[in-house]
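**User:**
My hope is that you can spare some time for a protein that puzzles me. This is the protein in question:
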Amino acid sequence: MFHHAAVTGPGPSQQSRIYALVFSDLADSTALRSEKGDRGAAELISHHREIVESLASQGTGRVVDWAGDGCFLVFESSSNAVEFALALQHEHERQEALPRVRVGIHVGEVSDRRGPDGSLRVEGLAVDLAARIASLAMPRQTLLSAAVFDSASRRVTTGEFDHAVTWPYHGAYALKGFDLPMEIYEVGFDGVSPLTAPTSSEKARALAGEPGRDNLPRPRTSFVGRERELANLEAQLAETDLLTLTGIGGSGKTRMAIELARRVRPRFPDGVWFVDLSALKDESRIASAVAVAMDLQFGADGVLDGLLGHVASRRLLVVLDNCEHLLSACAALADALLSAGSEVKLLVTSREGLGIEGERLVAVRSLAVPADAEASDVEKAAQCDAVQLFVERGRFVVDDFALTTDNVGTVVGICRRLDGIPLAIELAAARLRILSPEQILARLDDRFRLLGGGSDRALTRHETLRATIAWSYNQLESDERALLDALTVFAGGWTLDAATRVAGDGEDDFAILETLTRLVERSLVVVDRTGSDEPRYDMLETVRQYAAEQLLEHGDPIALRERHLEEFQRLAERSYAERLTHEERWAPRLEIEHDNLRSALATARDRSPERYLELSGALGWFWIAHSTHIAEGRDHVLAAIDAATEDAEHAALARALWSAGTMQAWTGNAAGGAILMERAVASWRDAFDPRELAIALEGLGMALFLDGRDEEARTACEEALSIQRDRGHPASIMRASVALAQVLVGLHELEAAEALSNEIIDSARKLGDRRCEHTALHFLADCPLIRGECDESLQLYSQSLALAEDLEDRMRMGAELQGLAMSVCGLGDPATGLRLYEAAEAEFDRLDVDIQMNFWNALRKRYREPALEALGTEGARRAIEDGRGLSLEEACRIGHQMAEQIAARSD
């Protein structure tokens, strides 16, 4: 048995992956050795290996292991695995001297883990299944599991082969060591492959008869994606008698249930029976609907008893589709069916569970959409289920529609805005008949009109987005509707406490909890347990739009927005009060709530200049710390200052001036920033607030420093440090020291700068302040760079970069990367140095950050210009282009690698 791939390199110690698993070997290696001799056979086997390695490398395959003439490979997709097998069979047919091969393929979830030698091991039940399938194959034969056939038969590229590709079905087999039967398919070339059914042996036994009858609907369109979910559902159905798929309308519950039922059909010799309850309104007729679906006839008074008697001795699966409006009756029937027969299983779809003993609930989530890093990559985006669905359905109306570099961002945007909801994506794709992807995306703010079906004929509740969401909404009780409507005031999610204060309308948290629980059970609200200490709740944007319409018609949105503003202004004020001592606690919290804070800012801007000034000023420190938002924050604070009235509260204006001054200085307007900061200093002097005065003086010092007024900057920073020392607060002393250390570096007073930076690092480590530690490490790196000691500066910048990455501060990551880049240039690698430098510049452009310091500009000229000259015009152009194409994360990884290489060389 094969076990692992000799693949080394960095990566997680263990993870689960979906792979297409391929086993292949020569059909009769013993006869080969008898005919060719050991040496001749070895040469042919070696040639066979070369063919396998070459063909695998052309797709997404990796050779996992060799055992004699047998090979184990993994592929990223079933279609790639099948194309490999076809090509391998074709090559062995073409080269007559080569022996014939047999191949088995299965797709499933396996675990990747690192072995003691660093190799990657691939293990799991799916591996054993693939090996069993391969053992059934005969010479020239490639056998597949049903899961591979389902996934690959629509996608395999066949144009390069001389013969048509065929997919014969060989029936169900009981494989040795496995309880459940396996449907076996074949893929081959018409007229070339023998297409002979595998023979029964001690390893497998063909099951007599045909799989059970069924009445499953035959969908008119293909099933796209969801391979991992289907594999999980298949395993769960084997373990339970009642599996309920829940999810919002349009999420694909019915299609999932049909596809799952089709795949497990061979397990149920007495049939798989699909019962659509969507149009049924009379609870008393549910048993009759099941009997009709199973083609059974009973007297009017004996339907239930007859149905229970029929299932008692049979092995069958009943699919109850769309139960949410008949929950009690469906629960009673399900309980009766399961009690009547030990071999009966039920697969249910509903917006919420039936709530009976033994029920296993699985939420059908929206289709996966591309992550940010994949949004502009055609190949990666095309692997996401939502994009695949949009493209495939788009081809129904525009036959040459394809995902391209020009439209990938727009298509991804459509799928994201539609929350990955399959129905919504299909309706949007249908609009490609008359609209471009850009036009569709631009109209999604009014998605219910855009996705109204596009036809004059009568439309069912499953054919328009509005009707689908309305169906769920109309099942709610009045208190559930009221809460769902009120929760639309939140943006980006909420906590239970926030929901109680904002949407609760005087109710206590237990009352809100009960109603919120019912909304979660009905799949209209989702729970998110990642990213914060307590669960957060949210709703899909499509649900939000519908409920927001209802709020405008039946609720009081103005009062809700006012309570929402109060909630998040309170949060911002608490963070401001604790920003100096608990930044690392508050910054992530505000990042999670940033969409809510944006919404609160919009309300304050529209309704109250005073509160807009208070809120934007309270958030200034956060926008600076999380530099991704620095340009956005700058615009808010400047607008709030401009809108402030003459009687604006003194402290609110002063902290807004500090925020605006700092952000102006960091985004290229140091002179304007210094003017604002001087006003802030004057305000805090008048207020006799030494702590805030010292902080404003630090900000003034930095603005003056960025404006090239170094001596004035020193004066301001020294006064700030003096005030903080008089106050005797260690954390405040440390932060004031940071500002002065920066100025000392700029003045090239390196010994003093290094001494002060080391003091800062000692204090920061004692106080657990990683931001000050990071900044002081940066200053320590600047000093050897100024001296020309680039090997030392490289190591220190790498350390400082690691802390900036932990803080998720992209502006400071860019600054460290520039230091690394100049160090690398100084060490004689101009191409790498220039690439890293340009990657940092590209990030600064994205952030709208413009850092101008006299000493830093001089260092850029000293290290960058010789690099440009050494590379020449064309070489420099390529390095700049390559660097601009790197993500910040990729560039940081390269920078760390350079530091490690130089350190190893020194050792």
Summary: The first strand starts at residue 4 and ends at 5. The first helix runs from residue 29 to 58. The chain is about 60% helix and 10% strand. Residues 1-13, 454-461 have pLDDT under 50 and may be disordered.
